[in-house]
């Protein structure tokens, strides 16, 4: 084979490689970075991709920046007495939901913000920064914070507020736990939890009697 043919074949190979790179692009096509971010962020990854109109490169850049900014953040443990105070306040908010769902949702939103700040996340008046930081460390529960914040600042129905409270409670329970070893201890009861005798624990949740029971004083449905 002549030198000219070898050069021509190499040129074709180079053009093909460049074309593939342009079509697939860096960080696309299920690359290592994308797989790592999907594993870390779960549903949050899909939410950010959707917000970027399907542009995975832009979404992954945003998530990369969150990890760089907040990945090294080490949440502070809560003193036992502070933790118990938060648990009691959340139970009170849930009970308040029966008579005043809008006030309860607004208080739940503020309580989550203060709890996140006490755990070492950005200050409670910095909502966007809090959400970004929480998404790095609590990707599976951060949507609950968004939902309760949205419900607290919009004209949501009673059912929407009830669902937002349920979702927000997941993040609350994650944040109120002092450290991973404490999982399952010092947590507010879930509907259907059992006490040491095996009986179902009495829940503080106002919606525990069933979805058909509506909160008082709310014209929404």
Automatic annotation (TrEMBL):
<keyword id="KW-0472">Membrane</keyword>
<protein>
    <recommendedName>
        <fullName>Secreted protein</fullName>
    </recommendedName>
</protein>
<feature type="transmembrane region" description="Helical">
    <location>
        <begin position="6"/>
        <end position="25"/>
    </location>
</feature>
<keyword id="KW-0812">Transmembrane</keyword>
<feature type="compositionally biased region" description="Basic and acidic residues">
    <location>
        <begin position="182"/>
        <end position="198"/>
    </location>
</feature>
<feature type="region of interest" description="Disordered">
    <location>
        <begin position="177"/>
        <end position="221"/>
    </location>
</feature>
<keyword id="KW-1133">Transmembrane helix</keyword>
<feature type="compositionally biased region" description="Basic residues">
    <location>
        <begin position="211"/>
        <end position="221"/>
    </location>
</feature>
């Amino acid at each position: 084979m002549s030198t000219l043919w070898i050069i021509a074949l190499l040129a074709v190979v180079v053009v093909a490689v460049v074309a593939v790179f342009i079509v697939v692009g860096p960080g696309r096509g299920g690359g290592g970075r994308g797989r790592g971010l999907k594993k870390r962020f779960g549903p949050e990854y899909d939410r950010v991709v959707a917000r970027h109109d399907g542009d995975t490169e832009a979404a992954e850049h945003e998530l990369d920046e969150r990890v760089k900014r907040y990945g090294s953040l080490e949440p502070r443990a809560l003193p036992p007495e502070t933790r118990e105070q938060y648990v009691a306040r959340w139970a009170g908010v849930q009970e308040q939901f029966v008579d005043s769902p809008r006030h309860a949702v607004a208080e739940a939103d503020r309580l989550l913000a203060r709890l996140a700040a006490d755990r070492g996340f950005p200050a409670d008046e910095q909502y966007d920064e809090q959400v970004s930081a929480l998404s790095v460390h609590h990707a599976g529960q951060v949507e609950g914070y968004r939902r309760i914040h949205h419900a607290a600042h919009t004209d949501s129905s009673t059912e929407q507020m009830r669902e937002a409270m349920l979702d927000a409670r997941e993040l609350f329970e994650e944040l109120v736990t002092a450290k991973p070893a404490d999982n399952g201890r010092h947590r507010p009861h879930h509907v259907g939890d059992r006490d040491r005798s095996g009986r179902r624990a009495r829940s503080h949740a106002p919606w525990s009697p069933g979805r058909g029971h509506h909160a008082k004083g709310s014209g929404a449905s």
